[in-house]
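pls design
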């Protein structure tokens, strides 16, 4: 992957000038850095992710060297915690790598904390128009009934490498993330916390999903959450035997296909938002 350089310079006040690339996949926005992860990354993620006092994002993503894959990827949430995997984020990683000339491959292996993921970049006129991601095998567990906010709730625990709780609901229930998302995230059933998805199955078999992400709250989209929702819908028979499922999130649409070997592929967009240089970030 070539040599890495820290893209920061000191100004005369002893502060850092930091180059930032902001990208988004369906409104799930992160700040991207092609460098090694700094020691104070947790504090930095809290500072930069703040939408009033910082740059504003769902967290930070670092593209790093890897001895197991083409590149590595580490994800830090807006609260400073480290995530295992981000489906929308990894699509942006693929676009970043290709369009910034870090690799000319259209098939990439990316090492994440939940394992190595394979990307296929759909390229037109030198630009990545969309990215397909092998999200791996997904484990859907039998339904659990829990008490949340004084009411009984049925959910499906799902593992995509990240932990998820999928709740099927009617259209009115799509307002629940703001009301009970935090309660589910911290429920005793999930000692390490959980991402929770609220899913309405439409008559045409498409899914409308809203999400509360562990460590970030309500977000525009969650790739692993949409994967979990598609898997749960197939597992329960809610989509009438379909193996390709369309999931509509607040930020847009993702397409999922379950292969015969049980692997799930996700296809969706990735976009640059802006690049900037920020001053006044003091080192600890």
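designed seq:
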């Amino acid at each position: 992957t070539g040599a890495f350089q820290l893209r920061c310079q000191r100004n005369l006040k002893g502060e850092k000038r930091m180059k930032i690339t902001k990208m988004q996949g369906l409104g799930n926005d992160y700040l991207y850095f092609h460098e090694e992860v700094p020691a104070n990354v947790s504090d930095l993620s809290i500072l930069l992710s703040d939408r009033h006092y910082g740059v504003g994002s769902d967290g930070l993503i670092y593209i790093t060297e890897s001895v197991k894959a083409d590149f590595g990827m580490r994800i830090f949430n807006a609260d400073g915690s480290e995530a295992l995997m981000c489906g929308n984020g990894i699509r942006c990683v693929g676009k970043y790598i290709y369009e910034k000339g870090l690799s000319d491959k259209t098939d990439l292996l990316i090492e994440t904390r939940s394992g190595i993921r394979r990307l296929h970049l759909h390229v037109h006129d030198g630009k990545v128009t969309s990215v397909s991601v092998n999200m791996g095998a997904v484990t859907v567990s039998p339904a659990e009934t829990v008490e949340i906010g004084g009411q009984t709730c049925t959910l499906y625990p799902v593992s995509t490498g990240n932990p998820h709780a999928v709740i099927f609901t009617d259209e009115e229930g799509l307002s629940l993330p703001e009301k009970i998302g935090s309660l589910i995230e911290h429920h005793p059933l999930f000692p390490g916390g959980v991402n929770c998805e609220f899913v309405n199955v439409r008559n045409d078999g498409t899914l409308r999903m809203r999400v509360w992400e562990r460590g970030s709250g309500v977000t525009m989209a969650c790739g692993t959450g949409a994967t979990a929702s598609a898997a749960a819908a197939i597992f329960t028979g809610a989509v009438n035997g379909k193996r390709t499922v369309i999931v509509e999130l607040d930020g847009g649409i993702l397409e999922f296909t379950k292969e015969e070997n049980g692997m799930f592929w996700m296809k969706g967009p990735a976009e640059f938002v802006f690049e900037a240089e920020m001053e006044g970030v003091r080192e600890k």
